[in-house]
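HOLO CASE FILE
Compound: magnesium ion
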Amino acid sequence: MTDPIIRIEGVSKSFGNFEVLKDLSFTVAPGEKLALIGPSGSGKTTILRILMTLEEINGGGIFVDDEPLWHMPKNGALVKADEAHLHKMRAKIGMVFQLFNLFPHKTVLENVTLAPMLTKGTPKAEANALAMDLLAMVGMADKASQKPAELSGGQKQRVAIARALALRPKIMLFDEVTSALDPELVEEVLNVLRKLADETDMTMLLVTHEMNFAHDFSDRVLFFDGGRIVESGPPDQIFTNPQEERTQTFLRKIVAAGQRI
Amino acid sequence: MEQWYGYIGLILDGAVVTAKITVLGCALALVAAFTAGLGRISRFWQLRWLATAYIEFFRGTSIFVQLFWAYFVLPLLGVPLSPLQAGVLALGLNVGAYGAEVVRGAILSVPREQYEGCKALNFTRIQELRHVILPQAFVLMLPTFGNNAIELLKGTAVVSLISLSDMTFQAQVVRAQTGSTAVPFLTILFLYFAYSTVISNSIKALERRLSRGLDVTKG
Ligand SMILES: Nc1ncnc2c1ncn2[C@@H]1O[C@H](COP(=O)(O)OP(=O)(O)OP(=O)(O)O)[C@@H](O)[C@H]1O
Ligand SMILES: [Mg+2]
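Model generated. Tokens follow.
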């Protein structure tokens, strides 16, 4: 088996006295499509935010590409990472947010070109060409000169995906990217994710409440509850034959709420 | 009647001086506001401390005292200033101290999602500020900046105290020479009002232009 691209080793995370992640460990293989599911408050978003360096860890360690994420080697020991180290590590990782986080004062095209131009020094013409390719891929090329406020939620989210892809990260994090959308707009965003999963070898971590999509999309599913992994396995096993009581209860509730699995 | 032309001419000369102090003062205030406003949210405590000291000092003391300092005390310390320089310095720094809090408040009110978007795209803090945060925050600052500019305009009247011949100073000259209070002071009343109307309309136009197609609350 190839070396994992992400290793999470005994990570703990608290907000105040409230321990959100408890001694959490798992690995992700290069190119793997991983779905993270579980009840609200189980810590799924927190894991993605820690990987994007938006949230610090309180204990344990994370390795991305065999390099420590939140630590760096210094005089033979691992010390807390400084801004320069985090900057280097962030280049490997991209994230798409529930609320899009597009830049409202920039056009769609500028939203996508800004990061390559600023962080990689990509010349403008080249950044534009790359951005137009990505916008075409997400079906947004014809809106390149619009501002985000003129777009629907589904369109905004597709632009946000193109924007994150423009930096060509090895790892992409998706945090409930369809849950702020009207139901009729969900599918257009999921189609883009399907395409990415099929056509790229990017490692993808996806937090979602769309069980049907998690089933199709992922190579492996992690079921979280209370900051721990309760059960993990291939989607067929988790969704059709879950072993743990808590997984069964969770999935029963989802089905009762009207979702197909 | 003839003589009034001369007197109106005097007041218009003063109006030019007032316009000059206002424009230069606003320019200095803008620079001071951004410098101190950014200093207030710096990661370095030394910068935060300096910015806070400046803001508190200039907001906590009177513009009269600041003006007299600039004009009468600085020369004793080896920094002689012309009345115009002293007036611009005192007014600019005074209004800049209020503006700094506006800059800080506007930057902090840009939603957290925008900062996180920048981090996920691996911007440095400077890039984040320059390309994403400030352009959005600036639109939020404009209305209060407009009020500050009008405060500065009204404040220019105090420079007559250091014998700078602004509008108010010239109105007093005319009053002394003609014995009429109503005519010169009605004239400058009108002129001050015209100036402040120009300021507030320009700010509104700028605000409309910069916020076109922009909905700051939603990405
Ligand atoms: N910044 C914060 N400060 C305090 N508590 C927080 C913070 N962020 C998250 N939490 C808490 O940590 C717990 C886990 O949050 P997290 O967002 O990771 O859950 P989640 O699994 O993504 O849930 P959901 O499905 O509702 O999005 C929750 O109880 C939440 O209230
Ligand atoms: Mg969440």
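CASE NOTES: Chain A touches chain B through 29 residues (CB under 8 Å). Chain A has nine helices and twelve strands.
CLOSED: yes
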